[in-house]
Structures are given as structure tokens and as C-alpha cells.
Specification:
The protein has about 300 residues and is α/β, with parallel strands linked by helices. It has two domains: about 5-65, Ribosomal Protein L15, Chain: K, domain 2; about 85-300, Four Helix Bundle (Hemerythrin (Met), subunit A), CATH 1.20.120. The chain is about 45% helix and about 15% strand. It has eleven helices and ten strands. The protein has helices spanning about 50-60, 85-95, 100-125, 130-135, 145-160, 170-195, 210-215, 220-235, 240-250, 265-285, 295-300; strands spanning about 5, 15, 20-25, 30-35, 40-45, 50, 65-70, 75-80, 255, 265. The strands form three sheets. A four-stranded mixed beta sheet has the order 1-5-7-8. α2 packs across α10 (about 265-285). The chain is globular. The two termini are about 20 Å apart.
């Protein structure tokens, strides 16, 4: 099972030794994990240092290394140069994708996100009937900005009328920042593995955003982070503690319904989803494997008290 490794203790040294990622402090090894089990490496701590071999070995495995700022949002990411044997052809297809194609992909992504928001609200005991209707109203490219209309209803309904999404704020916002950072890393690895480039989005096109595609493709999964944050806040966990990070990082292992009676962990389902987007770029037909709702047993395990 791929694991999201978070470095939050100051002054640690990371190295690669005989197939393991090792973590040491003052010359004493504190822990190790097989490199093949690492799904993403997220670094928050001050004074972290590492050998160049760590970056080489993780890049060989298409594992992103995400460096975060004080607000727990990513400020840099080490991106592997090679990720798929069809990388060149797929990137050319990605760059050359027609506007109608990318608009149809975005329509499905937005609709899936809104349906997932409705699921989260329903689970939280909130009124969610309007969200299925909003999802059905999304048109190609979302010209009516149904996504924003849903967001305005969603945040107030889920976290209260006083809540405002602010990436620079503490409390629930810091929890959301961290959870989204985990998602971004998981999706970024899937993008690399599919032979796509993270900068070339289907909707986001900010020149300063080197991970526009990552931000596009993580949208349907965001409400799953929101659900965990709601659970944390409701139980009095409003600070980004080690336990809160552990629970948020474990979202990569959350089992999602595949729609055919089977389930897959989010990290694996994300690979299937991103691969389907890559194939859509190549074929010109929109046939994408969107995420389903969480499997009940997986949610119960994820929500166990830290």
C-alpha cells in the first residue's frame, strides 16, 4: 500500500539506503520505509536535509516530493522527468486537445465534484437535495459557473454560516490546506505515471501555477477531504496536530466504490481516473473513470479516533 510520508519534526536527515527511505536525527536512525511503499513525500519541518540520492530514487519511482510553506500549502514540488513510455505522444495529445474536448472533460469533473459535495452534506445530516440538481445543470465548460454556485451553498451548510474558505487562515482552513496538499501529491503522481504534464490544465490556466492539471483533476476528491475536516472540527480537533495530519494523510488509502461491485483505494482509483483522461486526450472521446462514493467500511476505519 502506498503511503504518504510527512516530515514534520525539525532537523531530520533523509537518506536512501538499500531500498529504504531512512529518517535520522543527530546521526541516529529514527525510522525507515521501503521506497516502493512511498506514494508521496511531504516536507513541512524546518531544517530538513536530505541526500541527493533520495530525490533520485523517489523520482525513479515517479514519487513527488512536496515542500510546504507555513500555511501547509505546497510551494514547490520535485517532478520526475520521465514517468511513462508513451509520455511524448501523450503530452502532444494533451497540448493539442481541442477546446470542445477539454470543456466536456471539465463538465464531467465539475458535476462529479458537486455530486460528491452533496454526498458529504447528506452524510453530515445537512440538506443536500439541491446538489444533484446543480450537478445536472452543469454544461460544457461550466459557462454558468455552477461550481461557484454550489461552493457558496456548500461551505456555509457544511462548516457554518461564519466559515469562509481562506488559504491563509488557521483552524479548519489549515486542516483543509493540508488535506488538499495530500490530494495534490497523490494526483500529481498519477499524472506523472500516466505520461501527462501537470502544468497543462483542462480549466486552470494561471501562468504561475505549475500544477494546473493536478488542481483540475483533484476536484472530484476534494469533498472527501472536507468530510474528514468536518469530522475533526466536530470532535474538537481544530489544530493541525500530528494526529490530524495522520488522519488526513490516510485519505490515500480510503476505499472508493468503482461502480461495478468492487472497491479500490483512492490512490489506485486516481491512477485509473487520470489514465482515462490521458486516453481521452488521445482518442478525442470523453470516457473518464470518475471516483465513486467511499465504501462504508473504509470510511469507518478512516474516521477512527486518532
Amino acid at each position: 500500500m502506498e503511503r504518504v510520508v510527512d516530515i514534520e519534526t525539525d532537523g531530520l536527515f533523509l537518506a536512501a539506503h538499500r531500498g529504504f527511505l531512512t529518517v535520522s536525527s543527530a546521526g541516529e536512525e529514527k525510522g525507515r520505509i521501503p521506497l516502493d511503499d512511498v506514494g508521496a513525500l511531504i516536507i513541512h519541518a524546518h531544517g530538513t536535509s536530505w541526500s541527493n540520492t533520495v530525490l533520485v530514487r523517489l523520482s525513479e519511482r515517479a514519487v513527488p516530493v512536496v515542500i510546504c510553506g507555513a500555511n501547509h500549502a505546497p510551494v514547490a514540488c520535485v517532478w520526475p522527468l520521465e514517468g511513462h513510455y508513451q509520455q511524448g505522444a501523450r503530452m502532444r495529445a494533451q497540448v493539442g486537445a481541442s477546446k470542445p474536448l477539454t470543456k466536456q472533460i471539465w463538465r464531467q469533473i465539475v458535476a462529479a465534484k458537486i455530486r460528491m459535495q452533496g454526498y458529504v452534506l447528506s452524510w453530515a445530516g445537512k440538506e443536500a437535495g439541491a446538489f444533484d440538481l446543480l450537478a445536472r445543470k452543469v454544461r460544457s465548460g461550466d459557462p454558468d459557473n455552477i461550481e461557484a454556485q454550489a461552493a457558496r451553498r456548500y461551505w456555509k451548510a457544511l462548516l457554518g454560516s461564519d466559515f469562509s474558505r481562506d488559504r491563509t487562515a488557521d483552524g479548519a482552513n489549515a486542516l483543509l490546506n493540508y488535506g488538499y496538499t495530500v490530494l495534490r501529491a497523490v494526483i500529481s503522481r498519477a499524472i506523472c505515471a500516466a505520461g501527462l504534464h501537470p502544468t497543462i490544465g483542462v480549466f486552470h490556466a494561471n501562468r504561475a501555477n505549475a500544477f494546473a492539471l493536478s488542481d483540475d483533476l483533484m476536484e472530484p476528491y476534494r469533498p472527501l477531504v472536507d468530510r474528514i475536516v468536518f469530522e475533526l472540527v466536530s470532535s474538537g480537533h481544530v489544530e493541525l496536530t500530528s494526529d490530524a495530519k495522520r488522519r488526513l494523510a490516510s485519505i490515500a488509502t480510503l476505499d472508493l466504490d468503482n461502480g461495478d461491485g468492487t472497491v479500490s483505494p483512492l490512490s489506485l482509483q486516481a491512477q485509473r481516473f487520470v489514465h482515462s483522461v490521458a486516453v481521452s486526450f488521445e482518442t478525442g472521446r470523453v470516457e473518464i473513470a470518475l471516483p465513486g462514493k467511499p465504501a462504508p467500511q473504509g470510511v469507518r476505519e478512516l474516521m477512527d479516533d486518532p
